[in-house]
Structures are given as structure tokens and as C-alpha cells.
Amino acid sequence: MITLGLTGxxxxxxxxxxxxxxxxxxxxxxxxxxxxxxxxxxxxxVAAIEAEFPDTTTELGxxxxxxxxxxxxxxxxxARLEALVHPAVAQAREKFLADxxxxxxxxxxxxxxxxxxxWSHVDRIAVVSAPPEVQRAxxxxxxxxxxxxxxxxxxxxxxxxEKRARADFVIPTGGPLAETREYVSNLIACLAPPAxx
Length: 197
What we know:
Blueprint: E1 2-7, H1 14-23, E2 28-30, H2 31-39, H3 46-52, E3 57-58, E4 61-62, H4 64-71, H5 75-99, E5 105-109, E6 124-129, H6 132-140, H7 147-156, H8 160-166, E7 169-172, H9 177-191
Parallel strand pairs: 1-5, 1-6, 2-5, 6-7
Antiparallel strand pairs: 3-4
Helix pairs in contact: 2-5
């Protein structure tokens, strides 16, 4: 089984590309969705996060806005949060890989693949990338997003050019969706050719 790490900076279209893989029948492990599950109602990390960052949770789980305000810009606090989250996500990822061991390849959708060291646990890396002006427009159109918050998030992420330089595949997402879908289809054909083909 080939593991394809899928990553890209905020606003680059990674979720859209991950959905294209899933629609084509490729198993996708979504690290962000797993974090939401672990931090949601009854989630496995809620109590630990409340203990480490008091008053950031409710009966609905972690209040992500409050937690983000608590850790963003505070490297020590971010490191404490990551020390809780990363091992739990890694455990879920290992279960996903075991559950799909018979597949020719799977996608591991990990936003901070390079930043968190996950690149060393995959066979190939695909980076989604769009021009900076497209990225900026997409992110600033999100509800509650500010220029300051966008800049703070970008500061924690490896620059797009460096990600592209380290990737095995670059999937452009700045043009029409049909063009991106064609890149994804070609990549699937490359990684999981049809039997006998």
C-alpha cells in the first residue's frame, strides 16, 4: 500500500482536493476531521484540554475559538496543545492504515504534514497550491477571519514555495475545478493503475 500525504497551506484548496480523492473511491484519513471528533462532544481529548487550558470547553466539547485565542501567538501554549493532540491523531491514523491495509493506496490529509514531521511517515507527498492572491482572497472570505489572524496562521506554516519544492506532486488549485479534478484523476491513475494496465 502506498501512503500519499496530502498537504497545503491554509486556503489552498486541500479539503476540495481530498474530497475529489474520496469521491474517486480512495480512502482518505482527514486529520482535521479527527481533531474535531477528538475535541467534540464526548471527545477523548476534551478533559485533557480543559485541564491544560481551563474554561476552553463546554458540554459541546472544546470551544475552538477560545482555545485558538489562548494558544495563537504563544509558542509554549501551542506546544502543550500539540503534545495532547498529535499522539491521539497518530493513534487514529494507525487504526485507519490497519483498516485499509488491502488498498493499493490511501491519502493522509494532514495540514501540517511538514511542520509536524508527518512527511517522514508517508511514501509520497502531494501539495495543493494556488497563487498567493487566490489563497488570500479565499481565506479572508471565511467568516470571522481577519488579516491579522491569517498572517499569524501563515507564520506557523512552511512557505508554499518550500512545500512545493519538497513535494513529489503539486496539484494546482488556482484554476477551474475541472482542471484540478483532472490532475487528481491522473495522480490516481499513476499511483493505483488498473489491474493489468
